[in-house]
Design a protein that fits this description.
Layout lengths: L5 E5 L5 H23 L5 H10 L10 E8 L2 E10 L4 E9 L8 H15 L4 E6 L4 H9 L3 E3 L10 E6 L13
InterPro entries: Acyl_CoA_acyltransferase, Bact_Acetyltransf, GNAT_dom
Protein name: GNAT family N-acetyltransferase
GO molecular function: acyltransferase activity, transferring groups other than amino-acyl groups
């Protein structure tokens, strides 16, 4: 539809919109894992425990940010950034609701997250993902991320990616002495 656009802005990790997106994200990736490995959806009690155990405080300023993407004004996606050290940020919680997919939101969220990471002083950004999240892996590769060795030992991490964020310096002309 004409006029349908994305807007992306920082949002408190515990805002109602952020909490709703976190629940949708976690439900989707958890159900996908359990369906693949155990032929069932996530147990509702387990889902509630895990959501409560990972509220997102690491995405709060001054060393983290959560970005929420709104499509046509409705919260439809998220991306989180947190500093791991002075030069390295981690990209996390990249998610777009199913009904908003295919409209460019994921790439916009990641670009905004990269700019946020630069603003936090990071020179590189890293992430991990699972093997069954093939769409995510293809997206990261398309956006210039390269697969690398592990940067963490997260229990479900199977693929690690990295992208340098340093802006290219302008070429200088010939030197004369």
């Amino acid at each position: 539809m004409a006029g349908m656009t994305w807007t992306i802005a920082p949002e408190p990790y515990d805002s109602p919109a952020a909490a709703d997106l976190w629940r949708a994200y976690y439900t989707e990736v958890s159900d996908r894992w359990y369906l693949l490995h155990e032929g069932r959806r996530t147990d509702p009690d387990e889902l509630e425990r895990e959501i409560a155990a990972h509220p997102g405080g690491e995405l709060a300023p001054p060393t983290g940010r959560l970005l929420v993407g709104r499509y046509a004004g409705t919260p439809a996606g998220s991306a989180g950034v947190r500093l791991l050290d002075a030069d390295t940020a981690e990209l996390t919680r990249v998610f777009v609701r199913e009904e908003a997919r295919g409209r460019g939101g994921a790439a916009l969220l990641i670009a905004a997250a990269e700019e946020t990471a630069r603003g936090l002083g990071a020179r590189r950004i890293v992430l991990d993902t699972r093997g069954d999240l093939v769409e995510a892996r293809a997206l990261y590769a398309r956006l210039g991320y390269t697969e690398t060795g592990p940067h963490n030992d997260a229990p479900y991490a199977e693929h690690w990616f990295r992208k340098d964020l340093v802006r290219a310096e302008p070429l200088s002309g010939p030197r004369t002495s």
